[in-house]
Here is the input.
Amino acid sequence: MVTGDSHCLSPAWQVLRIGEEERLLRPMLVTGMKIWHLRDESRFFPKSNFNNAVALIPDGSEVVFLFGEIDCREGLVISVERCRYAVRIALGYCVASCVCV
Here is the structure.
């Protein structure tokens, strides 16, 4: 299974070979998801969408989480350009949000 923003659709339905075993990458799309939405204080709908998607993953499943590109392309750059955060602080928020999930 591959779970994340729209970037999870590129590898969707591909077969991943790990040693002698094959895994079908079933997509679990979380529309508009950014790492920034996963922080504790966020109440934006993609966080609920992510939590609902994760709840649907069967126990024992192998999952590739694919997200963060939108944060790097949009959120981080804009926040740093507008002097809201220093680069290290902005990256720290993203990494902390990922680790906490």
About this structure: The two ends are 17 Å apart (CA to CA). Strands lie at 2-4, 15-18, 21-24, 27-29, 64-66.
